[in-house]
Amino acid sequence: MKILVTGSKGQLGRCIQDVAKGYPEWQFVFTDYKELDITDSRAIENCFKEYKFDYCINCAAYTAVDLAESQVDKAYLINAEAVKTLAEACSANNSKLIHISTDFVFDGKKTMPYTEEDKPRPLGVYGASKLLGESYVQDILEEYFIVRTSWVYSEYGRNFMKTMLKLGNENKEISVVNDQVGSPTYAGDLATFILFLITNKREEYGLYHYSNEGTISWYDFAAKIFEVAELNIKVNSISTLDYPTPARRPKNSNLSKMKAINTFKIAIPFWSDSLISCFSLLKTH
């Protein structure tokens, strides 16, 4: 089994590297933009010809949500056009694509968890570019998994958990929005799910949602992070209007995981349990 993992130095890519250690019989090729620029179609073509991948896990993405509003071309190049190139390479080389997408394809106006059947309505450039990438995959391939996720964090890279810990070590009081709700996703859990699809050679291809179980606000998330870290920080609850950003965020990022749960007969960890697991790993890094 030969598996290409793009964006391997990001949070999810690093966690996939950790989980991959349990599969020494597989050949993983981990690349980041320095090793493989996914916007370079010639480089992609040559890489696929050389290795004859069975799977491609695309973790590479332009994720600077606010900056995307001013770097529109770059966001679309990485999140859409490069994904099209990867999908075409997978089609030409009989490779299966596992592509990671986002809750930002939705506008957040729904009061219930979003299912895979709900119509996407992105609020900004980031979500729109990711949605176009999804469309390319669906148009070009039959054997693919698109996995939408939300609020990703881990012991690696930059993320909300690590930002809160940094602020907590510098301040006695912080403010966090309370009117955006969703489900955090520990990248280690997502990595395990992705490799589960490969390990079990699942062929129920299509679009799936995956995040940890439970629904909370960013305020709730911050409060729990400080509790787990045993930091005595006062967390003030504020509204989105009190914290304006260049890109609008969906008020409701809650993703229904029932399709994945019912299709693959899996149990998804509860968000607070995964946070505790992640924090224990963070202390060892």
Can you describe this structure?
With 285 residues, the chain is of the alpha/beta class. The protein is 40% helix and 17% strand. The protein contains nine helices and twelve strands. The chain has helices at 11-20, 41-51, 72-92, 125-140, 160-170, 187-199, 218-229, 258-264, 271-282, and strands at 2-6, 27-30, 55-58, 96-102, 144-149, 152-153, 173-177, 181-182, 185-186, 206-209, 216-217, 234-238. Strand 3, helix 3 and strand 4 (96-102) form a beta-alpha-beta unit. Helix 5 crosses helix 7 and helix 7 crosses helix 9 (271-282). 42% of the residues are buried.
How does the SSE layout of this entry go?
Blueprint: E1 2-6, H1 11-20, E2 27-30, H2 41-51, E3 55-58, H3 72-92, E4 96-102, H4 125-140, E5 144-149, E6 152-153, H5 160-170, E7 173-177, E8 181-182, E9 185-186, H6 187-199, E10 206-209, E11 216-217, H7 218-229, E12 234-238, H8 258-264, H9 271-282
Parallel strand pairs: 1-2, 1-3, 3-4, 4-5, 5-10, 6-9, 7-12
Antiparallel strand pairs: 8-11
